[in-house]
Amino acid sequence: MSSALTELCRYPIVQAPMAGGASCPQLAAAVSEAGGLGFLAAGYKTADGMYQEIKQLRGFTARPFGVNLFMPQPQYADAAAVDVYRHQLAGEAAWYDTPLGDPEAGRDDGYEAKLAILRDDPVPLVSFTFGCPAKQTLDALKRAGTLTVVTVTTPDEAQAAQHAGADAVCVQGVEAGGHQGTHRDDPAAGSGTGLLTLIPQIRETVQLPVIAAGGIMRGSQIAAVLSAGAGSAQLGTAFLVCPESGANALHKQAMTNPVFNRTELTRAFSGRPARGLVNRFMREHGRYAPAAYPEVHHLTSGLRKAAAAAGDPQGMALWAGQGHRMARDLPAAQLVEVLAAELSAASAALALRSAS
What we know:
Layout: H1 3-6, E1 13-15, H2 25-33, E2 38-41, H3 47-60, E3 65-70, H4 79-88, H5 90-96, H6 111-120, E4 125-129, H7 135-143, E5 147-152, H8 155-164, E6 168-172, E7 178-179, H9 195-203, E8 210-213, H10 219-227, E9 232-235, H11 237-240, H12 249-254, E10 263-266, E11 274-277, H13 280-285, H14 295-309, H15 332-355
Parallel strand pairs: 1-9, 2-3, 3-4, 4-5, 5-6, 6-8, 8-9
Antiparallel strand pairs: 7-11, 10-11
Helix pairs in contact: 2-3, 3-6, 10-15
Family: Belongs to the nitronate monooxygenase family. NMO class I subfamily.
Keywords: Detoxification, Flavoprotein, FMN, Monooxygenase, Oxidoreductase
GO molecular function: monooxygenase activity
C-alpha cells in the first residue's frame, strides 16, 4: 500500500464497516488502539447519527479510523415485482405482528448531508460502497486531508475508481459476508469472483493500492492476500463476534451454531445480493425476491427488527462470510494481536520456504 495508507495503522488489518450496528464506536476504537484500522459504518444512519458516532469514537481513541458511506442508488427496480414481493411477505407481517415498510422510504441514505459533515470535519479515511463517487467529490475530500477508498468487485469497477481519483480500492471477493459492493446490481452478472483470483486481476488493471476483503478469518489468510498483491486485509465476520461489536447477540451466536452450517448470496432481505447464514426466511423467500434495492430493504426492515425482538434468528438477516465457522469470541484488541502474530508466523514460514 502507499505510505499514506500504511501510516494509518501498525498492522495491515482493517476492521470492515458493517452497517446495521456491528461497527460501533467501541469496536472501531478497540481495533485502532490495538494497531489495526477501525471503521464506522454510516450506512442506514442519519447524517447526525453518523456525526454523533464520530464524536464518540474520537472520545475513545486518538488513533486514525475510517467511515464508510453508501452511494445513492439509481431508480431501476420493477415496481410491479416489488408489489408482488410485498404480497408474499404478508404472512411474515402477520406472524411477527408488524407492518411492512414503505419501499419508497428513500434512495440516497443521506449521502450529500454526510459528505458535507465529512468535508467540514474531516476524518482520516472515507470509503464508498455500491458505486464510485464523482471525481469532484473525491477531490474535495482529498483537499480536506482525507484518504478515499472505493469498494470494487471487478477490474472495470477498479478502473472507474482510479479514473475518479480514489487513493485505493477495497477489492471484495464473493466470499465476503454482507452485501456485495457491486457498482450496479446486474442480475445477469453472475455470482462474483473469488478473492485470490480477483486481487491479481485488479493489480494488473490499475495502479492503486489494494485492501483485500472476503472470507478472511486467520493471519495465514492475511499473509496469502498480501502475497497475492494486497497491501492490507479487511475482516468483518471475524470482528462481528467480538464483545465490543454492536451486532445482536443472536447474530453473534449464529456464527458458530451448527444449525446454521452454510452461507448463500440472497436478495431476500434487501433486494441486493448479500451473503448470510441460510435460515428459514432466506429459504422461503430468497428465490422470489426482486432486484430492488433499497426498496426491499425498506420493506423488510420492520420484519427483521421484530424477529430480533422475538429472539428468532430464523427471521433475521444473519450476514456472514464463508469463513464464519472460524469465528473466535475474543476481545477486539486481543483478536488484532492474535491475527498479527499469525501473520508474522505465516510470513516467516513463507520466507523460509522461499530461501530453501
